[in-house]
Amino acid sequence: QVQLVESGGGLVQAGGSLRLSCAVSGSRVSINPMAWYRQAPGKQRELVASITSGGSISYDDSVKGRFTISRDNAKNTVFLQMNSLKPEDTAVYYCKLETSWSFSPFWGQGTQVTVSS
Q1: Per-residue pLDDT tens for 80-96?
Q2: Which whole-number Å values give the CA distances from 41 to 46, 55, 92, in the listed order?
Q3: What separation in angstroms does the CA of 29 have from each of 11, 14, 36, 39, 114?
């Protein structure tokens, strides 16, 4: 059974930093595409950053230069380092894992990030 557990969210002032973690069990982050999404109140869930199995990385324009996605294969964990946070970054952040054998991707339960001005 594949499970994703996010952690690291919280309340931070604008300009501050947070590091989100997504611990995966039942599959391996090294061979599956992973991504971070976020959903603000009243808005659709949006892609923030992604990393392919080959290590290719992409970011939404709104977070380029401020957020960094990475993975630790030994810990089977994906991270999202968020710097220079802005109030508009406030959202629930989710990680997603895709596999070649599952029709649907797997999602974590989400972690709340709140940035105060």
Answers
A1: 999 999 999 999 999 99
A2: 12, 31, 9
A3: 28, 31, 13, 23, 27
